[in-house]
Amino acid sequence: MKRERYPSPDHRLRHSIKIARDVPKPSILKLRRYSFKLNGKPVVVQAPPAYNLLETLRNVAGLTGTKNGCSEGECGACTVLMNGRAVHSCLTIMEQVRGADVVTIEGLASDPDSQALLRHFAEEGAVQCGYCTPGVVMASKALLDRNPRPSLEETKDALRGNLCRCTGYSKIVKAVMEGGA
Amino acid sequence: MSLTMADVEVDSPETLKDALQMLNKTRYKVIAGGTDVLIRMRASPVTDERLLNIYSLDELRYIRSVGDRIRIGALTCIADISSSPEVRRFGLPLAQAGDEFGSMQLANKATIGGNLANASPSGDCIPPLYSLDAKLTLASVRGEREVPVKDFFKGYKQLDLRPNELLKEISFRKMTKEEHGLYLRHTLRFGEAISVVGVSMCLRSGASPKRFVAARIALGAVAPTVVRATRSEKIVTQGPLDEARIRAASQAVTESISPITDVRGTEEYRREMAVNLTYRGLREILAKKEGGR
């Protein structure tokens, strides 16, 4: 019944590819092919070897849900799951992604197991400007996957690497503590 | 010559053997988790450096309990170290450094080997390894050699590591029931922040109350390398650890350190915090002994 709230991933993908066309493309000379799993599907992308996963997701794959905040692993906006663990996509180069299983915020939209988490964020109003939200949701997803009912301390601990300048965190923490189901 | 990160060359060996051979032929900057290297490179990407990405060498990811030693592969991530029951039981200061290392995202990616080889005086894994008297195994095509952690760091950002060598393993003798250890750090905020001062200690308890017969106390971020507070160690082991002795030993750390003023704190602030953290650490260890644990 809540399905209308979340546009389908395909719609989102088409939309974001349009945006990505305006972004300068990386140097063609040093492109390499990288095979990995992206949001459950095997993909092959071309990117320079030291290009980071964040830029590849946004500029090559056209998945602009993952945000670039600080580019140096402080803010957590670029958090994605790599092999089930929350990592900074800005500090992960493509050579480290080969063969990995990567999940981005786009992957949660179509994942039945993540619907409760997304719904709790919406219902608690845990989003203001929304820029940190994809990273916060991915860090929360990593937490809930191994601990479906985290305590206040556990939640704060898992989200200590995600900065939010709008919400004051309390609604985010509340949404996460409602759990993954 | 590369102008942007998109131009940087990267090679990714599949085995340690391949990595050592490549390192023997070509000059590389080694990248493990990348949480320090990439930030530095992005700040000045105009470089001749080629990256040797060893992140995929899973053979260097392990925590093993072998005889009386704990052996940790250099690519073991900080999150795995802090969640390892063996490290917590036999090398508590290192587990505690893992707890406070930074965000989950960093701890999932950053490696213990990278934290050492980056050679920052504020690297959080380093003081615990000094207090545990750890040994490092360095590998090259010619074979392996072992160096005590305190000899590995020769000066600010200077390592006893040849260009063709890789840090392969970190090992330390298991702490016994008579030994009490901890790691405390002072940061400007909890979570993600670089240490202003870090103190790690490991004391061996003696038979009589308040007595400790051996002590290793190491401080981070207050000198060009992590340093042992040798004078304080001596004071701790010379008599019962009463309030006066704790105060004297804490004050004595200032003889071993040479802090600088930077964005995270002034020299004076660091000196005072080093004394305070040592005081707190000694009090906590005494409480552990008296609490029978």
Outline the structure in words.
The complex is a heterodimer of chains A (181) and B (293). Chain A is 35% helix and 14% strand. Chain A is of the alpha+beta class and 181 residues long. Chain A has 2 domains: 3-107, Ubiquitin-like (UB roll) (Roll), CATH 3.10.20.30; 109-177, [2Fe-2S]-binding domain (DNA polymerase, domain 1, Orthogonal Bundle), CATH 1.10.150.120. Chain A has a 5-stranded mixed beta sheet, sandwiched between helices. In chain A, strand 3 and strand 4 (85-88) form a beta hairpin. Chain B is an alpha+beta fold and 293 residues long. Chain B folds into 3 domains: 5-53; 59-172, Uridine Diphospho-n-acetylenolpyruvylglucosamine Reductase, domain 3 (2-Layer Sandwich); 181-290, 2-Layer Sandwich (Enolase-like, domain 1). Chain B is 34% helix and 24% strand. Chain B has helices at 16-25, 37-43, 78-82, 85-90, 92-99, 104-109, 112-117, 126-131, 149-152, 230-237, 243-251, 267-290; strands at residues 10-11, 29-31, 51-53, 63-66, 69-73, 135-140, 143-148, 153-155, 158-159, 166-173, 179-186, 197-205, 212-220, 227-228. In chain B, the strands form 4 sheets. In chain B, strands 4-5-10-6-7 form a 5-stranded antiparallel beta sheet. In chain B, strands 11-12-13-14 form a 4-stranded antiparallel beta sheet. In chain B, strands 1-3-2 form a 3-stranded parallel beta sheet, with helices on one face. The longest helix of chain B has 24 residues, at 267-290. Chain B is globular, with a radius of gyration of 19 Å. The mean pLDDT of chain B is 93. Classes of the chains: A alpha+beta (181), B alpha+beta (293). The A-B interface holds A 26-27, 30, 48-52, 71-74, 76, 79, 85-88, 90-93, 95-96, 98, 139, 142-143, 157-158, 160-162 and B 4-10, 12, 31, 33-35, 38-39, 41-42, 51, 53, 55-56, 79, 102-106, 108-109, 190-192.
